[in-house]
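Hi support team,

I'm filing this because I wasn't sure whether my run with flavin mononucleotide finished correctly. The job status page said complete, but I'd like someone to confirm that the output block is well-formed before I use it downstream. Pasting the exact inputs I used:
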Amino acid sequence: MEAIEALKTRRSVRYFRPGEVPAHLLEELVDCARLAPSGRNEQPWEFVVVRDRRKLHEIAELTDNGRFIADAAACIAVICRPAKYFLEDGSAATQNILLAAHARGLGACWVAGDKKPYAEHVLKALSAPAEYKLISLIPIGWPAPELPERAPKRPLAEVLHWERF
Ligand SMILES: Cc1cc2nc3c(=O)[nH]c(=O)nc-3n(C[C@H](O)[C@H](O)[C@H](O)COP(=O)(O)O)c2cc1C
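And here is everything the job wrote out:
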């Protein structure tokens, strides 16, 4: 899928049909994530790919708005060392995963990590060092046949400002 088409047609997918996602596809998603831009090129990220069903349930239950992680084939946790630009870096990596997943016909959704009280519990469940930051959890799977409505987006004319605000 062409890049502009991928980013124009991506949407958050929270309903999955059963079916495994091959390891090489999950590996490709992480490969795309690690190529994201990074402040001072510190690349403070680590990616934990969870496929174990019990672990998926455990993580899902720790979240508030991410219970559907339990229905996904896998979940990628984006975790950063607390470098200066950890949140920007981890967010760029997260977006790369979302777009790459969509380009491969997979469904995915950004589930909040940073700022959530459950972040420390998720880090612990994943055996990550406590000083690291959970940026996002990204459930991945084959989308259920009926895609949800597209989330409303503010129109271009409203958000685009030429030369001054
Ligand atoms: C920082 C951030 C945190 C988010 N956290 C959640 C979440 O916890 N649960 C969820 O279902 N969606 C979450 N989302 C997805 C948003 O709800 C979604 O991107 C938004 O509604 C727009 O829909 P779209 O992704 O289909 O364009 C999050 C998105 C971002 C960027």
